[in-house]
Specification:
alpha/beta; 12 strands; 7-stranded parallel sheet; 13 helices; 5-stranded parallel sheet
């Protein structure tokens, strides 16, 4: 079987697990650059199994139709909005997922919040350039953190907020007061979450109802000293409204790990906006998470070859 591991940006996949020992006699290709369109089709034309790293490369119905040899599609994680699972199933392709960790994204979330609140990247650059003490930071203790989406990642972030001495409030479309209370948070309305918070952290799953959910009215409702953190998915926020909020000072700053288009285009406006800390979708990019992702991806391929697929995704 020909197997392709896509979007291995750091050239880490080959060393995360023993692919050769686990798949003796099979042909493995690691693709280190992001491919799209004809280049992607050419790279996968003769491939029978693909390991897709999260949503870095999408597999819509139109692409699936152009890959008649594809038999197995493994995604890291157990949910991937970029894969048309129904189209794959109709085409006779088995789609499988893997486990992973939630603490990695939560830890990065807190790193971004601290970086924005204390202007860490600004001060780092200034010290390296010969400067000294340009900014005045924001204390988190005693302030309000609003967690939008109190799932596995959001609940960890809420716990971090409590540990830092913050008042934690929470909102999401279906959140209950009981669920919020279980994680030390107070359920508030959407309006109060954005208006009362000194920092808002987004942890919603991207879907039909959450795409573009956070818009101009939410951002204008925030304090001018407020900080927005997004380590969920870029399209949850209306990008144009976010750009205006940062340009015009509706909010004090933002820490962003996710974007509408990834990789973020070289000339994208967000790359040059002030009061931002940007990371290239690193929420899950840790040694432990990669070992879990690729270890279980290897298991998925082995199980498929044995005729007993594991962790199948179906719609």
């Amino acid at each position: 079987m020909r197997v392709a591991v896509l979007d291995d940006y750091q050239r880490a996949a080959a060393f995360a697990v023993d692919w050769a020992g686990g798949l003796p006699g099979h042909e493995l290709t690691f693709v280190h650059e992001h491919l799209e369109g004809a280049a992607l089709v050419d790279a996968l034309r003769d491939v029978e199994a693909v390991v897709a790293m999260r949503e870095r490369t999408g597999f819509p119905a139109a692409l699936i139709a152009r890959l008649p040899r594809l038999r197995l599609l493994v995604t890291t994680g157990m949910h991937n909005a970029a894969i048309d699972v129904a189209a794959a199933t109709r085409a006779g392709i088995t789609v499988c997922g893997t486990g992973g960790y939630t603490h990695s994204a939560a830890e990065l979330t807190w790193g971004l919040l601290l970086a924005v609140a204390r202007s860490i990247t600004v001060e780092d650059a200034d010290v390296r350039a010969g400067g000294w003490q340009r900014t005045v930071g924001l204390d988190l203790a005693g302030r309000t953190l609003a967690v939008v989406g109190l799932g596995r990642v959001g609940s960890r972030v809420a716990a971090y907020g409590t540990a830092f001495g913050m008042r934690v409030v929470a909102w999401s479309p279906h959140l209950t007061a009981e669920r919020a209370g279980e994680h030390g948070a107070e359920l508030v309305s959407r309006e109060e979450a954005f208006a009362s918070a000194d920092a808002v952290s987004l942890h919603l799953v991207l879907g039909r109802t959450t795409r573009g959910l956070i818009g101009e009215s939410d951002l204008r409702r925030m304090k001018r000293s407020g900080i927005l953190i997004n380590t969920a998915r870029g399209p949850i926020i209306e990008e144009a409204a976010l750009v205006r909020a940062l340009r015009e000072g509706w909010i004090a700053g933002a820490g962003l790990d996710v974007f509408d288009t990834e990789p973020l285009p070289a000339g994208h406006v967000l790359r040059s906006l002030p009061r931002t800390v940007l990371t290239p979708h690193l929420g899950y990019v840790t040694r432990d998470t990669y070992a879990a992702f690729f270890g279980e991806a290897l298991e998925d391929i082995q199980a498929f070859l044995a005729g007993t697929p594991l962790r199948r995704l179906e719609r």
